[in-house]
Amino acid sequence: MKFSSNRPNEIDCYHCGAKNQIIINGIVKGISLFFLPLFPYKIRQEVNCTNCNSSLCLDEMDKPLRKKYKKYVTKHIPQFWHFGGLLIFVIIIIMSFISSYQTSKKITERLTKIEKGRVIEYETNSKMFSILKVVNVQKDSVGILLNKVEADSKYGISKIKYAESYSNDTIYWSKKELLEMHRSKKIIDVYW
Predict the structure, then answer these.
(1) Which residues contact 99 (CB under 8 A, 6 or more apart)?
(2) Strand order in the sheet with 22-33
(3) Which of 4, 29, 59, 137 has the fewest Cβ atoms within 10 angstroms?
(4) Most distant CA pair in the chain: distance in Å?
(5) How far apart are CA 176 and CA 120, in angstroms?
(6) What three-state secondary structure class fits 52?
(7) What region, left, alpha or beta, does residue 34 occupy, with left being phi > 0 and alpha being psi -120 to 50 degrees?
(8) What CA–CA distance (Å, rounded) separates 173 from 120?
(9) Of the candidates 42, 34, 41, 39, which has an alpha carbon nearest to the alpha carbon of residue 84?
(10) CA nearest neighbour of 132 among 167, 95, 156
(11) pLDDT tens for residues 154-187?
(12) Each residue of 116-156: pLDDT tens digit?
């Protein structure tokens, strides 16, 4: 990736001798992911002739030739956009942490102020997924109906969400038990 370019008029080509045909480019090599630059690892200067199309890196030149071209080389450090992909990657990670925190906070609020009619998505002890329906709320406990249907993934819950296959027996769990289930990542969501 080119980051600087200089076209000095005073020097001639090292290969063909043409005057005013030299372009000195600063080139950054870096690691990229899906065409987004993550970070640079090598910066080099390259001398190109537009007349004979010859190209040579400054590091590959012999000492007298390098000295001739060195004064026209621009000293640049990589620009911020050379780290653009890394910056986007860090922002995505931060946003996912913020989203996860906000979701966890929302579920905690809904569990502490649980109301009749709420539906709780959860992971069963057998590593399956199902839903609970809140039918009774008392001071320290919650009466729930278990859904008889289980899904094999979180995404399968949407298929059983509207199925009216709840048990007829009301089971009472304490609010502390529900909060502990949430802390251990067993409760996925709480909604109406």
Answers:
(1) none
(2) 2-6, 22-33, 36-49, 55-57
(3) 59
(4) 95
(5) 15
(6) coil
(7) left
(8) 13
(9) 39
(10) 167
(11) 888 887 776 678 888 999 999 999 999 999 999 9
(12) 999 999 999 899 999 999 999 999 999 999 998 899 988 88
For residue 177, how many C-alpha atoms fall within 13 Å in the half-sphere facing its CB? 10
Residue 94's H or E segment, with its range, is helix 84-112
Amino acid identity of residue 71, one-letter, is K
pTM equals 0.62
Say if residues 44 and 57 touch (Cβ distance below 8 Å).
yes
- Locus of tokens 């966890």: 104
CB atoms within 10 A of CB 54: 16
The single-letter code of the amino acid at 142 is V
Are 163 and 184 in contact, with CB atoms under 8 Å apart?
A: no
| Contacts of residue 43, Cβ cutoff 8 Å, sequence gap at least 6 | 26, 27, 28, 29, 76, 77, 78
- Residues 128 and 156: their CA atoms lie apart, in Å, by 10
Q: Which uninterrupted H or E stretch holds 127?
A: none
